[in-house]
From TrEMBL:
It comes from the Bacteria. Residues 54-172 form the TonB-dependent receptor plug domain. This is TonB-dependent receptor plug domain-containing protein. Residues 1-29 form the signal peptide. SUPFAM superfamilies: Porins. Its main location: membrane. It is found in: Cell outer membrane.
Length: 937
């Protein structure tokens, strides 16, 4: 017998509080219940048949414009970030400096990734971003959607491939914008932390203008332009704000680097050196001119944290133009142009020189060959070499830090033209459109293998001075990549009543789509020619034509029971196809009770990067190498007993085995099959009063034939079973120098038995599976309080029950990830909004339950409770506590044409949960104040 899942204290208290409120106000609400009236039939997300809101048999959540304002969200990403079924695991532009899809953000529902979540704008697809997520998945950049024009967001928490086709596995997000606007509207918003003014410092503003009345004049035309700017700050700026537990786990945040300006001479005296006392000895000596405050002993240090962004800046210009024209009383023509111009800037560490003889490896994507570069020493006779033998100058190239920023930019557009209305009894909606996204990524951070070596060894580069732009550009040329996604489409759908059954009308919808897509992602020539040291390239292109037909029936079997059946077929010309069915049942045994359930299949078509031509390679960073990590730990401990220079080398030695970087190469696979899923949901809606409804829905999704490459961690753990996937280099000179110095300090022989990983060779295949299940709860109520105004009390919750990933080596599912790091069992949002006259006041309580610190039971034992016990730490050190925050909202509309509002986010200054493992920065914002003003004429 299974033990029922535990309910969190907050969830229990929240539900009890709302229940008591409902009981208190029930009598008054019943007296003021509105007379029922017939609702207009509308298109609801997840169906092609027009229906009333009350008829929906699917778990659909609607977030209104007022709710968006009350949340304080400035962007679409923040709006969707407030959803309880958003797993927060998708790509974010905040991490764009280390992303192949620089400058963009995605959305993931149900832990199924950007490829399992479909995003729509006004019921139709958006352009995929010009770059692919992780070089694999085409996805929608939600940053390209203007936030201030949103009328509402509909979230279908169910699979819908039978309606929309590919990607609608974990859910559908339909962002619906204002379509009929008259007059001129201006809106401005600004926010910043009350802890430090430069934290969370964001600005947005928009202008909307429209004229004409569709009902009165027969037309309406509008335009909307929106600007969003995110403020930035450096890693060094937040150093005084870091909590002690974070510094303990991330000690490098307080460290400085010996790769400095004007640098440090480092190396070893030759074994036959003229001074026998120095022969064979290692040394590190500051170059002349080091500022006194940067000298630590004899070593010149550099604070590299002052160059890198803790929070990168972005500028986004988004907009929409639209028009509607009445052709007749029954037909309306429409057009819609959406566009976005985005630029994100990521300042990273200024580059430094490497030890002479240190070898960088990377992959030549064109030739399919591994490349290597041995970093040069300053030769004898070099103007900056005071020694009689070649020497390393550990140096930081600080000439022009501005040039080393990483810029991710994109321009997106989507033009749709169509007709909707009624023809011969059919409700029709047809359109033709074109869309695209062009993305670029540019930076000067990496060195040119020829230009750099020549400038260093010849003396062209003047160490300790400010060099010209020409010299720097030869050493660190502009490099990056360009990507483009384009789509043209035509679609048609129509619905109507086709027969009158005893229990009601039999409704039918039919439709078809044609789409052409093409995609390319190509690195600049200097990358593809393997001139850029350590940076592997990508050269992928693909195109396809797809046709789809679909039908849907809504049949009232009895007065209480309705069935909806949908069937869709998608076919790539000269390629794969998919047929996806869907069955929904809605049973209403009483007016106040609706029982509903869904069985459906879903699919994700292999992306163009997965099936196209070419290939890609990238670097894996921060990996644990099982064959070297034990030795690396021992070398670190030995070197830490030495001088200041040894302390620095200790960390480098540790990273060489326990935080390694190496390239991987992957090629597309034209024989891939679509990913498939089986989705099931069952739930109920209880509406005891006209103004109170509660829905509870259980969902279960099994996805199979998932496309991916072998898991890097598993390849590392099982290297000996397939060594051809992971060739290694010989033990390096640097490895031997660390061993030599460790023996000098401790007398122990500590030596690597294996060289560094050279590369990994991979290809996309269908071999993964995922299972997810859980419960969604949605409680909504509205109470009329007489002279005291109106009160809305809402609760949204997602309780995860299962998250299983497939282990290809064990041929079985891994441990259930729910309750582990990053996957809380419960996410809950409790909202209360009160309005009276010109005033509105609201609060929002956000809750995420506690998790284990470990990310996995099997491969992450260090952070399991038994790991804490081995280190004599309390069990609490291997857990991440629950986190609760409260947001407050105030709005005033008593000034003609104006609406003023303020949000206080994290009003009670809830501190970030303690996270005792190396990671990115915790939330340091504290309380954040946002103020907004809107005016409409």
């Amino acid at each position: 017998m299974k033990t029922p899942p535990k309910t969190t204290p907050l969830l229990a208290r929240s539900t009890l509080a709302i229940t008591l409120a409902l009981q208190t106000l029930a009598a008054q609400a019943a007296d003021e219940a509105r007379d029922s009236k017939l609702l207009d039939r509308v298109v609801v997300t997840g169906s092609n048949i027009k229906r009333t809101d009350a008829e929906t048999s699917q778990p659909l959540l609607t977030v209104s414009r007022d709710e968006i304002k009350a949340s304080g969200a400035l962007t679409v990403g923040e709006v969707l970030g407030n959803l309880t079924n958003n797993d927060r695991g998708a790509l974010s532009d905040l991490g764009g400096a280390n992303s192949w899809a620089s400058g963009a953000s995605g959305i993931s529902l149900r832990n199924l990734g950007t490829g399992g979540t479909l995003t729509l704008l006004n019921g139709r697809r958006l352009a995929s971003y010009g770059f692919a997520d992780n070089l694999q998945l085409n996805f929608t950049n939600i940053d390209a959607i203007p936030a201030n024009l949103i009328e509402r967001v509909e979230i279908l928490k169910d699979g819908a491939s039978a309606i929309y086709g590919s990607d609608a596995i974990g859910g559908v997000i339909n962002i619906i914008t204002t379509k009929d606007f008259r007059g001129v509207g201006l809106a401005v918003s600004a926010q910043q932390s009350l802890r430090r003014s430069w934290l969370a410092r964001d600005r947005s503003g928009s202008v909307t203008a429209g004229f004409g009345s569709l009902d009165g004049d027969g037309y309406n035309v509008y335009g909307h332009l929106e600007l969003y700017q995110r403020g930035s700050y450096k890693d060094s700026d937040v150093r005084p704000l870091l909590p002690a537990w974070y510094v303990e786990q991330n000690p490098a945040r307080l460290q400085r680097s010996s790769g400095s300006f004007p640098g440090n001479y480092t190396g070893s005296y030759p074994a036959n050196y003229k001074d026998p006392a120095l022969a064979g000895k290692s040394f590190t000596t500051a170059a002349p001119g080091c500022a006194p405050e940067n000298l630590v002993g004899a070593v010149c240090m550099y604070d590299y944290w002052k160059d890198s962004d803790a929070r990168p800046a972005t500028d986004r210009l988004t907009g929409m133009l639209g028009g509607r024209y009445k052709i007749s009383n029954d037909l309306t023509a429409f057009t819609e142009l959406q566009f976005a111009d985005i630029q994100a800037k990521y300042y990273t560490n200024v580059p430094r020189s490497q030890a002479a003889g240190f070898t960088s490896n990377w992959y030549d994507s064109l030739k399919g060959e591994l490349q290597s570069f041995s970093h040069p020493a300053l030769p004898v006779g070099h103007p900056q070499n005071p020694y009689e033998f070649p020497v390393t100058l550990a140096y930081r190239f600080v000439d022009n830090p501005e040039m080393f920023k990483n810029v991710g930019a994109s321009f997106d557009h989507r033009l749709v033209m169509g007709v909707e209305g009624t023809v011969a009894g059919w409700d029709i909606d047809t359109a033709i459109g074109t869309m695209g996204s062009r993305a670029t990524q540019r930076q000067h951070l990496y060195l040119d293998r020829y230009g750099y070596a020549e400038a260093v060894t010849s003396g062209t580069y003047k160490f300790g001075q400010v060099n010209s732009a020409d010299v720097l550009n030869k050493m660190f040329p502009e490099m990056g990549s360009t990507g483009h996604y384009r789509q043209q489409f035509v679609d048609f759908k129509g619905s109507r009543e086709i027969y009158q059954l005893p229990a009601g009308p039999l409704m039918m919808a039919v439709g078809a789509e044609l789409r052409h897509e093409d995609f390319f992602h190509r690195s600049m020539d200097n990358v593809l020619q393997a001139r850029i040291v350590g940076f592997s390239g990508v050269n992928i292109e693909g195109r396809r034509n797809t046709a789809a037909v679909f039908t849907e029936f809504a049949a009232p079997i009895t007065k209480q029971l309705e069935a909806t059946l949908a069937l869709r077929g998608d076919k790539v010309f000269n390629g794969f196809g998919a047929v996806t069915p869907k069955l929904q049942l809605a049973f209403r045994p009483a007016k106040a009770l609706l029982l509903r359930g869904t069985l459906t299949q879903g699919f994700r078509a292999p992306s163009l990067p997965e099936t196209g031509n070419g290939g890609a390679s990238w670097f894996n960073n921060g990996r644990n190498d099982p064959k070297r990590c034990g030795t690396a730990r021992a070398l670190r401990d030995a070197l830490k007993t030495g001088n200041a220079a040894d302390q620095i080398e200790a960390n480098l030695a540790f990273n060489s085995g326990c935080s390694v970087s190496f390239p991987s190469a992957v090629t597309p696979n034209p024989d891939l099959k679509p990913e498939r899923s089986n989705n099931a949901s069952i739930g109920l809606v209880v509406q005891a009063l006209d103004n109170v409804s509660v829905s509870i829905d259980y969902y279960a999704i099994k996805r199979r034939e998932e496309i991916g490459v072998p898991d890097i961690a598993q390849i590392l753990q099982n290297e000996d079973s397939n060594p051809s996937l992971m060739p290694r280099d010989a033990v390096s000179v640097q490895d031997q120098l660390w061993s030599q110095r460790a023996k000098e300090l401790t007398g122990q022989t500590i030596a690597f038995g294996s060289g560094a990983i050279r590369t990994m060779r991979l290809q996309y295949r269908n071999f993964y599976k995922t299972q997810v299940s859980g419960v969604d709860i949605d409680l909504r109520s509205r109470w009329a309080l007489g002279d005291w105004g109106k009160l809305d009390l809402n609760l949204e919750a997602n309780i995860q029950n299962k998250l299983l990933y497939w282990d290809t080596n064990a041929n079985a599912y891994r441990v259930n990830r729910v309750g582990y790091d990053g996957v809380p069992r419960e996410r809950v949002v409790l909202k209360a909004n009160w309005s009276r006259g010109d005033w509105k006041l609201g609060s929002r309580v956000n809750y995420a339950s506690s998790t284990k610190l470990a990310s996995d039971e099997r491969d992450d034992s260090y952070y399991q409770p038994e790991g804490c016990a081995e280190r004599d730490e309390p069990d609490s050190n291997c857990r991440v506590s629950s986190w609760t925050s409260t947001d407050l909202w105030l709005q005033y509309g008593g000034i003609k044409h104006w609406t003023l509002s303020a949000n206080l986010l994290n009003a009670f200054n809830e501190q970030p949960a303690v996270y005792r493992r190396p990671a990115g920065l915790p939330n340091l914002n504290g309380r954040v104040l946002k103020v907004s003003a809107e005016v409409k004429f």
